[in-house]
């Protein structure tokens, strides 16, 4: 194959990917105000919060089911209408143990009709282990949900733990953090407060 043919093939492949990505975006959903104020939010990141990456455009989320604390099935679509700080974790994850009380503090301060911290243990975490984990760290205000087959985590491209994703009230992913962070820091609280002030 000639060089020019290779170039045209590569350009065609890029175009196909671009079209596919555009097609995945739901055109009926508006771009959240969050992304219009991305620079403002990025300027609030300090310390470990600098790892929080705000996307340039909202991303679709998985429709895979997870198992609630009561054993019922649910999806991320059930949480539309508010900002969601979605945390993927596991009982064997040391950084998860470190940051979980900080997530509980965030839920205490901001949890309500407009915001919630949603914790989902992915992989092999039986309910007794999850309950003991929360009891040991003295956390009682976060859900004991499970993703036993890791289907939701895989669909959300969670390659390590912990991973925390921010969802807009429209149900799209607007930011992502890989690794643990100080979620009870002034920086984290300022970011959440600004999200809520923007109103999505």
Low-confidence stretches: 3-31
Mean pLDDT: 87
Tell me, briefly, the overall form: globular
Total DSSP helices: 7
End-to-end distance: 50 Å
**Category from helices, strands and their pairing:** alpha/beta
What can be said about the biggest beta sheet? 6 strands, mixed
Strand order of the largest sheet: 1-8-7-4-5-6
Order of H and E elements: HHHEEEEHEHEHEEH
Helical residue percent?
25-40%
The number of distinct β-strands equals 8
Strand content: 15-25%
Estimated radius of gyration: 18 Å
Description:
By secondary structure, the protein is an alpha/beta fold. Helices cover 39% and strands 20% of the residues. It contains 7 helices and 8 strands. A 6-stranded mixed β-sheet has the order 1-8-7-4-5-6. The longest helix has 22 residues. The chain starts with a helix and ends with a helix. The relative contact order is 0.22. The N terminus is likely disordered.
Please render the helix and strand layout as text.
Layout: H1 3-24, H2 33-36, H3 38-43, E1 53-59, E2 66-67, E3 73-74, E4 83-89, H4 94-110, E5 115-122, H5 127-137, E6 145-147, H6 151-155, E7 163-167, E8 173-178, H7 186-198
Parallel strand pairs: 4-5, 5-6
Antiparallel strand pairs: 1-8, 2-3, 4-7, 7-8
In brief:
The protein is α/β, with parallel strands linked by helices and 200 residues long.
Observed structural traits:
200 residues, alpha/beta, 6-stranded mixed β-sheet, two-stranded antiparallel ribbon, 7 helices, 39% helix, globular, disordered N terminus
